[in-house]
Amino acid sequence: MEITAANLTALFTGFDVIFQRGFEKPPSYYEKLSTVVRSTSRQTTYPWLGRTTKFREWLGERVIQALEAHSYTIVNKDFEDTVSISRNDIEDDTYGVYEPVIEQLGWDTKVHPDSLLFTMIKNAVTTPGSVLAFDGQPFFSATHPVGPLGAANDVRDSLASNINSSGSGPYWYLIDASRAVRPFIFQLRREYAITRMNTLTDEAVFTRREFRFGVDGRANTGVGLWQLAYASNTDLSVPTNYGAARAAMRSIKTDAGLPFGALTSPRDVYLVVPPALEEVAAQLLHSDFMAGAGASASVPTGNIWKNTATLVVSEYLS
Fold first, then answer.
1. Residues 27-76: tens digit of each pLDDT
2. Model confidence over 230-265: pLDDT tens digits?
3. Is 59 a member of any domain?
4. Fewer CB within 10 Å of terminal CB in the chain, N or C?
């Protein structure tokens, strides 16, 4: 190919199409599991009320309820993924070898938010101190403080748990994504965008005979309401363990002592697992009959957990 401005524009426009083809192929889950927030500065601080309120019958004067405020800050990070394209390959009409790389770049861009989200979820159980909730406790913790501010014996005597670490298997997660504020936050400062360095006067072309095609964005992940997520490393092939996790999650109350209401909208409940648990999770959620402990080969037991959650499998949890 003759290296002209018109030919370079046409070539890189074709690369844009190939990039989009790769971008459209993989599934993505971060928008389903996270509250997506548009950030407008280097970092965004989220004010949380760590103590919730309750209604009372209005007798006499109003009773002013004390609230404890928390702040939770997510700092945006820069991310990029860039490939170089040899000028010689363009001149020799061998630029087709770059098409799979450009398509993969589109794929990587699509799943990058998922990789950030699921890596954070995994870190929340492998290195708990690295992912803290708004109350200062590890996001998955057996000691989340709950209760009205100023209660007798100190508020931290009342604790709630959103984790069961009594097992020895891989962790799996129940996620309730039905609320406006979800258990996770994806904070987007700048959309992922393509940058093309495809003119003959570019510095890299002059010094190294390289054109460049890259993507960059600015974002980060964080956590929201711990009450809407539950982690367990118990044996998922035993359906009662799944039932126990659901029961524990539904038992979490607000600071006012009222039901928090997790898992009340099955359409927005997700069972998130690593690939090692894909088979047992699929059986649990899709089979007509119960598998594992409690099942009988001679008298099949109906599967009460069928369709109680949407299955999400992520290799980033491995």
1. 999 999 999 999 999 999 887 655 556 677 888 888 776 555 677 899 99
2. 999 999 999 999 999 999 999 998 877 778 889 988
3. no
4. C
Query: What is the pairing mode between strands 210-223 and 184-197?
Result: antiparallel
pTM of this structure: 0.88
Domain that holds residue 179: 5-52+78-317
What is the average per-residue pLDDT within 166-179?
Answer: 96
Residue 70 lies in a domain: no
Whole-angstrom Cα distance, residue 229 to residue 176? 6
Bridge partners (DSSP) of residue 231 are 163, 173
Pairing of strands 310-313, 269-273: parallel
Q: Does a structural domain hold residue 176?
A: yes
Number of domains in the chain: 1
